[in-house]
Amino acid sequence: MWKLKHLRHLNLSHIRLDMPKHSDRYSLPKLLTLWGLSVDDKIPVKNGLDQLCHLREAGITFCLNNCKDLLNWISGLTSLQSLRLRSKNDVGHPSHFGGKPLSLSSLSKLSHLNLLGKLPKLPENLPQGLKVLTLSLSKLTEDPMPILGKLRQLNVLRLLSDSYMGKKMVCPQGGFEELRVLKLWNLKNLEEWNMEERSMEKLKEINIRCCNKLMSIPSGLMKQRSLKELVITNMHEEFIQTIKRLMRNRDVILTHKDYIFTPLPWEHANHTSDGVHSMASHINV
C-alpha cells in the first residue's frame, strides 16, 4: 500500500499503519483522506505517519501513554479541513488528550472538528474557520460558551455526553453570530442556561437530551424569530411543561421524545435494557 503513489483516499477500520523498513520515507505523497486510523504505542507516529503532510480529512483513534508526537503531527497538517480525534484506554473506554491543552491554531482551514475524550482545558485558540464542532466526554469544568461564542463562522455546535460538567452555562453577548443548530446531550450537572443580548440571533434548531437538572431555556430565545424547531428528549415533566408554556403562540415545531437507551460499556447505568423503546409526540405551538 505504501507504494501507491497516486492514492488520494484511504478508509480503514481501526487499523494501525507501520511503514516497512527500507521503504520510501515519502510514500503516499498525494493522500488527502485518512479515516479509521488507529494509533498506539506499538507503532510510533514517527515510523512514517508523520510524513503524510497533505491530508485534508483525518479520523484517528489513539491509545497512547504520551500523545505529544501525534498532536505535533496533527498541528502540522495545515491543509486539514475535517478532523475527528478519539482517545481511548487499553480496554477501549474513552480516555484523555494529555496534560496540556490542544494546540490547533495552525489549522487555519479546519471547518469540522470532532473530539472524544477528556480535555484538560478547552483550547482558546480554536481555528476561526470552524463551522461544525462536536465535543464528547470532554469533562470540561469551565463554561465553554465564552470561548465558543467567539467562533464567528460556527454553524453547528454539539455538546454531547459529559462534555461540560458545570452547573451554569452563559452564552456571551453578541456571540455565536452564525450558529444555526445547537445540541445539548447528557449534560447531567447543567442546571442553569442563560443568554446575554444579541447572542445566537440566527439559531434555528435546539436539541436537548437527558439534561435532567436543567429547568428551562433562556427567555431571550422566545423573542428570536429565527427559532423554528425545538426537540427535547428524555427530559423531566416540569421542564416539558415550562417549554410548552414559553412556546405558546410561537410558530415553532416542538417535538417531545422519550427513549430507553442501551448504556455504553463505560457508562454506569441503573437499567440494563438491551433494546431501544421510543415514544414521540409532535406538537405545533
TrEMBL record:
Keywords: Repeat. The keyword Glycoprotein does not apply. It holds the Pfam family LRR_14. It comes from Capsicum baccatum. This is Disease resistance R13L4/SHOC-2-like LRR domain-containing protein. The keyword Repressor does not apply. Residues 3-211 form the Disease resistance R13L4/SHOC-2-like LRR domain.
